[in-house]
Design brief:
heterodimer; A: mainly beta; six-stranded mixed beta sheet; four-stranded antiparallel beta sheet; 12 strands; B: mainly beta; globular
């Protein structure tokens, strides 16, 4: 069965430090996509970054990078030089094969401290 | 210029009522979705439509009926509302699903409170 696990329900990080949010996934399909979304307190879901299972390099989008360890089935999100505006819920998600469906982890609530 | 817009943003209603949530996307995407986020922030897909055709129906009670008049709109109608329907409902859209990088873009959410 496909599953996404985020083991950190909450994290507190000092402003300007780097942050790593953990995500592990489980699927037997060789073709899948991994996503990270941010949900600030205002409630909207914002797409951050995508990693395909066949991508050779780790994805990067500005201050966001995805540490993709295929053998360990992990897809951790790294935020460099954290800012107060990074305080939010972060969701890891996975799409398997050509499936229309994305399954989400339970999320990690990140608090950036001034 | 909102890409995926849903209305209303807040909906407060009594048990037993019927209500609708509207969603529109101006991204030219072929596929639209409805998700439910519960009080613990868990997000789960309910439906997806591709070009007005139902693709996914995830064991949702038949009190929930999606309607897609065209590929830019996917509305959610809920009959006989129950307390357990209280949640945030998100609409999303994506381009051709057969693409490997099928990113879903979400609306701002509709917070439904059933009293």
């Amino acid at each position: 069965a496909q599953k996404i696990t985020q083991t950190q329900p909450g994290m507190f990080v000092q402003e300007k430090e780097a942050v790593t949010l953990d995500c592990t996934y489980d699927t037997s399909d060789p073709s899948y996509g991994l996503f990270w979304y941010k949900q600030p307190s205002s409630g909207e879901m914002i797409f951050l970054i995508y990693q395909g299972s066949y991508d050779q390099q780790n994805a990067t989008e500005g201050r966001y990078s995805l540490n993709f360890q295929k053998a360990r089935k992990s897809a951790n999100l790294v935020i460099s030089a954290s800012q107060l505006g990074d305080s939010a819920m972060y969701f890891c998600a996975m799409r398997v094969g050509r499936d229309d469906k994305i399954i989400f982890g339970k999320g990690t609530r990140l608090h950036i401290l001034p | 210029d909102t890409a995926v817009s849903q209305t209303p943003k807040y909906l407060v209603t009594q048990m037993g009522n019927d209500k609708s949530i509207k969603c529109e996307q101006n991204l030219g995407h072929d596929t639209m979705y409805w998700y439910k986020q519960d009080s613990k922030k868990f997000l789960k897909i309910m439906f997806s439509y591709n070009n007005k055709e139902l693709i996914i129906n995830e064991t949702v009670p038949n009190r929930f009926s999606p309607k897609s008049p065209d590929k830019a709109h996917l509305n959610l109608h809920i009959n006989s509302l129950e307390l357990g329907d209280s949640a945030v409902y998100f609409c999303a859209s994506s381009q051709e699903v057969r693409l490997a990088k099928n990113i879903q873009y979400f609306g701002a959410g509709t917070r439904l409170s059933v009293l």
